[in-house]
Amino acid sequence: FFTKPLMKSVVFFAILFVASGLSASVPLDTQDEGLDLEQSDLVVRLCWSFFYISVLVGGIYVWGLCRNSDAWGDVSKGQEDEEPLDPKLWYIHGKAYDLEKFMSRHPGGYRPLMVSRGRDATELFESYHSLTDVPHEMIKKFAVPSKDMKNYKSMFNWDMSAKSNAFAVEVRQAVREHIKNNKIDTMVPTRVLIYCISITAFTVWMTYKYYWAGHWWANFVVPTLWWISFVQAFHDASHFAFTRNNWHSAFWVYFWPYFSSPTTWDHQHVIGHHIWTNVFKKDPDLNHGMPVFRVHTRFSYRPWFRFQMMWVWFIWVVSTFFLSLIFDWSGLTSGTYHGILPYQRLTPIRTAAHIFGRIVSLFLTTGIPFVLFPFWKALAWSVSFYAIYGFFFMLITQVNHITEDCLEAAVKPVSSLLFGCPILVSTTRVFLPTNF
Question: How much is the mean pLDDT over the chain?
Answer without folding.
Answer: 76
